[in-house]
# Entry
Amino acid sequence: QGKFTLLRDSRTDGSFLVHHFLSFYLRAGCKVCFVALLQSFSHYSIVAQKLGVSLAAAKERGQLVFLEGLKSCLDLLFGEEEQPGQPSPLQFLSGSSCDLRALFDFVRVSLSAPAGDSWKGPVLLVDDLSVLLSLGAAPVAVLDFIHYCRVCVCCQLKGNVVVLVHSNEDSEDEENELLVNSLCHHSDLILWAEGLATGFCKDVHGQIKIIKRLSLRQAEQDLVQIYQYKIQDRNVTFFARGLSAAVL
Amino acid sequence: LVFTEEDKYGLYSNLLFKYFLAEGIVCGHDLFVASAKEHPDNILKELPAPLLDDSYRKDLGDEAAAVKSEDFQDSMKIAWRYQNLPKIETSPTTYTRFGHYYDVSKKMSPELCQSVKLHSFYLHEELPFEPKMKTWNMNSGYARLLQSIQRIISQEGFDGSDPQKKQRNVLRIGIQSLGSILWGDDVCCSDAPEDPQSLTKFLYVLRGLLRKSLSACIITVPAHLIQNKAIMERVTNLSDVVVGLESFIGSERETNPLYKDYHGLVHVHQIPQLNSLICDVSDTKDLAFRLKRKQFTIE
# Structure
């Protein structure tokens, strides 16, 4: 509880980790606030169904609060004048404010449990943070947003935060690299999915590095484990390096 | 959202663009063509003619049964995935196999062109940005284009907003040379553009519009002119498909014996991963193209 997990991908798509955490926490009975910036609700819903969870049902019983970024953005830009009491979570897009306060308020309100709420620990899931930079948010604003979320969700509400970011080894996107490096330093657990250095392979889709921070002060004490993985239609298989089923 | 990086002189990407539009006409989809360079009417006059085939569809019943169940959020995002058409084709052109073939040396007849509804957006003929629109914080050319697309989607019912409309159709959107200076964006000319986020914001909003309607879009961009690589990384993240065309014209590869049968390379930077956990499963990633007198082939 109270943990900040960073999902990171390089040279490959790490969204399978997001799908995993979403269905994992829902099945565990947690209240989840999912900020889905890049894909539609039906995309996640269809994959979740393959993993055995119904997002629509979770939404209905109040266990899942789903922010569909794409839809919210369209509502903001093409919709009617917004009501004063209900600012759009993506308000920073229209330039009226340059911070992500509205987005944070949305998260805070979604996860603050009303009396009588029987869900176990709250969870904030974000897919993916790098998009906010593409939409004009400054890296500092994004880091502030994450900081506020941590304080609220991890410390005050004793919940967990899981965030996905993209990064590339030779990336020229300095703002993104700044964001990713900063988040790495503040994470309790980092799951880093990387495409193979040798290039595309049918049987091994990539490698995942699991970094557990034992102490936030000394990086040498981190526990690092590396596995390779292959993604299938309904699950992901992990194996030790060089021991994929195709090789054995 | 198909994002195509143009080859240096735009010859081959233009061809791909026209194929996309031509396929739309043959399938009976509505078209929306946007450009700041060439008037859309001129683009539409230059589409390749389809090769008519005498063999008919095996069974009309099969086609009807393959129709997807209603779900407006399951919109079509990929350029070549359009086989589940709800409308029964009554025109003389028929389906033989997946997609159609075209003769590049002949032009599509005007009658066939007019058989579908055509919407166009030519930046220099559009009215200036309306002041009463909310501040969008985006390049005004892009903002006008988005408004135009949204208006067509909503008016013509591509987003399911008109329950009276029984026959649902697909809207094919083609945007030519986005990001070029003609759109008022300096992202292709300068290393430190004035408004680097306009292009990415545009793509995000466009993605939203595509996801909530029955439409697919192809965009061509003179990516070789964009010096700021960070922008290209972000753009790749925001698109479903990213394909780059590299022509051999004027490059040392033109005389390389390995490539003597081809005119250029096709780089597939990204393929869509929608509604599924599985990622890239293609067998090969080394593709090249060639343009013969009648046909453009990728192998």
